[in-house]
Design brief:
Blueprint lengths: L10 H7 L1 H8 L6 E9 L3 E7 L4 E6 L8 H17 L7 E2 L7 E4 L8 E7 L12 H20 L9 E2 L30 H23 L5 E3 L8 E3 L5 E3 L6 E3 L1 H13 L4 H13 L11 H19 L3 H22 L2
Parallel strand pairs: 7-11
Antiparallel strand pairs: 1-2, 2-3, 3-6, 4-6, 5-6, 8-11, 9-10
Helix pairs in contact: 4-6, 4-7, 5-8, 5-9, 6-8, 8-9
Length: 341
């Protein structure tokens, strides 16, 4: 009997099947594995790894949905190495295998596509999502500004290769072998976009692209941005210090684009406006606020909603397809509220 297609499994079912992939990757490391536990099944599948000597690690099995070329993962590792070397900013730390490699490519039966796997040192503490307050929002702004300050002086190697945040849907760049198609208005999704909703989405796409074009037309140089610095990608350490994780979405972009992504998630929380104000105060304690024109951040924040809507619709996974009707309506409401559409 043939195994059930991978995309028809639940997220946990996929994670169970990917345990073979995880095990094959972990065999290449110098530590003996005592236990592997599932942590997350979002864009990627992430496991906690307990070693026999008591050390703890995190294994990230990259999904094709993450749209990451191996060159991009190498570039992620390069910036993390520079941050760990040049700053005291607490950031993720990759671990090398026995042969010195950081990325393990593993192919297993029943799992579509060979999967790049990376091991990181474990970071203890709760996620910021569970400890959000005005004080932690201030610290998140400090952390974002610190990353931008380092990025301004970062000089990558000739092989450094990441995408550019020059469009509403930056993962659709055809210059990369892994690319997420823009499928919002495909005929297959016609029922999800009645005329009134489609007009809202189309107007939002136009406004967001206009803002991106304005930002890129200014004199400010592009820098490497984290591009996904939200409360689920940050751990809280002792004395409230924040530790940044998950640098895989790096892009060439502008600080205001990075800030807008972070604020998308803060704004949606209870007391979101106050959290955003504290984020700004924290950022300005380190660097000047990067928004040059009023409403740029608000419009870019709406752009994040468009990206997430397309993410859901482009998924081959059954669980995402089931979510789509409610999610398209939710994003429509945010676009109408935020942009006055």
């Amino acid at each position: 009997m043939s195994p059930r297609p991978f995309t028809e499994l639940t997220k946990r079912g996929q994670a169970r099947r990917l345990l073979r992939t995880a095990g094959a990757a972990l065999e290449r490391y110098a530590f003996d594995v005592a236990r592997v536990r599932l942590l997350a099944t979002d864009a990627n599948t992430v496991y906690r790894v307990d070693a026999a000597d008591g050390a703890k690690y995190v294994l990230r099995v990259t999904s094709p949905r993450a749209c990451k070329d191996v060159d991009e993962i190498h570039s992620e590792v390069e910036w993390l190495a520079a941050l760990n070397r040049d700053t005291d900013l607490p950031v993720a730390e990759p671990v090398s295998a026995r042969d010195g490699s950081v990325i393990q490519i593993v192919a297993e039966n029943g799992v579509p596509d060979a999967r790049p796997c990376v091991v990181f040192r474990w970071v203890a503490g709760p996620h910021l999502d569970d400890r959000m307050s005005e004080d932690s929002a201030f610290r998140l702004g400090e952390l974002a500004a610190g990353l931008h300050e380092h990025a301004r002086g970062f000089r990558p190697s000739p092989t450094f290769r990441i995408r550019r945040f020059d469009r509403v849907f930056p993962w659709s760049d055809p210059n990369f072998s892994t690319s997420e198609p823009v499928v919002l208005f495909d005929p297959a999704h016609r029922d999800l976009f009645p005329p009134a909703r489609r007009r809202v989405y189309e107007a939002a796409i136009e406004r967001v692209q206009n803002v991106i074009d304005e930002i890129r037309a200014a004199d400010d140089p592009e820098i490497v941005i984290h591009n996904d610095l939200h409360p689920w990608n940050v751990k809280v350490r002792p004395r409230g210090r924040l530790h940044a994780l998950d640098f895989e979405d790096l892009m060439w972009g502008h600080p205001v684009q990075d800030v807008a992504t972070s604020l998308y998630y803060l704004y949606l929380r209870d007391g979101g406006a106050d959290l955003c104000d504290q984020f700004r105060a924290g950022y300005e304690s380190v660097a000047p606020w990067p928004e040059r024109s009023p409403q740029h951040i608000e419009i870019l924040r709406a752009g994040r909603g468009l990206v997430l809507a397309n993410w859901v619709l482009s998924s081959a996974d059954r669980s995402d397809r089931e979510l789509a009707p409610e999610y398209m309506a939710r994003i429509e409401k945010r676009l109408r509220d935020w942009l006055g559409l």
